[in-house]
Amino acid sequence: MQKNILHLMTAASLMGAFNASAHAETLSQFFAKSHIDGQIRSYYFSRLYGTPNTVNAYAYSLAGRINVVTAPFLSGFRIGVSFYTANALGTQPSNPARIDKTLMGTSPSVNALGQAYLEYQDKWITAKAGNQLVDTPWLNRVGGRVIPVTYQGVTLEAHPFRGVQLSALRIFRWKDRTTDQFYRDNLYYPGHYEGDSLYG
Q1: Is 23 exposed, middle or buried, given 0-12, 13-18 or 19+ CB atoms closer than 10 A?
Q2: How many other C-beta atoms can be found within 10 angstroms of the C-beta atom of residue 163?
Q3: Which of 27, 133, 140, 193 has a 20 to 30 A CA-CA distance from 94?
C-alpha cells in the first residue's frame, strides 16, 4: 500500500514537472513569436519669419518609441502596445513665443501610451479596438514630427475579394502629436478646448 502511494506521488510529481515544463515552453514560444521594435528620432525645427512683427521660433526634441505586438492567441487575437516619449533636453527658450509649438507644444517632455489595442484577424476581416494608429485618406498617422497622431476607437477592415478592401471605423477620441492624453475634439475646435492645447 505504501509502495503504491509512493508510486502515485512520484507519478504526480513527474506529471507536475512535465506540465510546468510544457507551460514554460509554451510561454517561451509565445514570447518568441511576439514582435518588439523601437525607433529613436532627433528633431530640430525652426521658423524664420524675417519680419520684426513676429519673432523667430525653434524647438528641439529627442524622441523614442517602443512597440510590442503579441503572438496570435485564441485563433486570431493579438494585443499591441506602443509607448512614445519626447524630451526637449533643456533646449527650450525662456520666451514661450520663441518655442515652435508644432513639435511638442510648450511642454519640456511628452510621454504617452499612444497604442493599446486588442486585434482580431482572419482571412476575411481585421478588427481592432482601443488606442491605435489609423491610416485612411481622411484620418492618417500624421507622423511629420516626433510623435504620431493616434486614435481611440474601433476599426474594421474586410477583404471579401482579392484586391478589394472595405473599411469602417468609429473614433471616439484622438491624441494630438503634442499631447499625452486623448481628447474628444478636433482641429476645428478652439484652442485649449477641454484642456487640449491643439498645437499640432
Answers
A1: exposed
A2: 5
A3: 193
pLDDT digits (tens, 9 = 90+) for 111-164: 999 999 999 999 999 999 999 999 888 887 776 778 899 999 999 999 988 889
Bridge partners of residue 99, in order along the sequence: 58
Outline where the chain has alpha helix (H): 2-33, 101-104
- Alpha-carbon gap, residue 95 to 54, rounded angstroms: 13
For residue 101, give the nearest of 29, 195, 199 by alpha carbon: 199
Pairing mode, if any, of strands 109-121 and 150-158?
unpaired
Q: What's this model's pTM, rounded to 2 decimal places?
A: 0.80
Task: Say if CB 97 and CB 122 are below 8 A apart.
Answer: no
DSSP conformational letter for 32? H
> Residue 113, SS3?
strand
Give which of 8, 68, 70 is closest to 38, Cα–Cα: 68
Quote the CA–CA distance of 87 and 111 in Å, as a whole number: 9
